[in-house]
Amino acid sequence: MPTNIRIPTPLRKLTGEKEVVQAEGKTVGELLGSLDAQFPGLRERICDEKGSVRRFVNVYLNDEDIRFLDEQDTAVHDGDELSIVPAIAGG
Predict the structure, then answer these.
(1) Domain membership flag for residue 91
(2) Hey, which residues does 83 pair with through a beta bridge?
(3) How many other C-beta atoms can be found within 10 angstroms of the C-beta atom of residue 25?
């Protein structure tokens, strides 16, 4: 079953301005791979050259930061939602 993925405004130019897209996978990493297959270039904006999620990008699975779970190995289940949130800095 496809998983809904929330796309932040700065990345929507790659998804045809869609706020929510769907991808398939059993782990967060598989979802990101499926997402990049549909929207080339998206994964490189989320992950660094080693394949890790960039420091300034937060990825949440059902409101849980994947950094506190199993990162990209975090299992995805039916009805889960993935959110990609760029970090905000200010002062």
Answers:
(1) no
(2) 6, 60
(3) 17
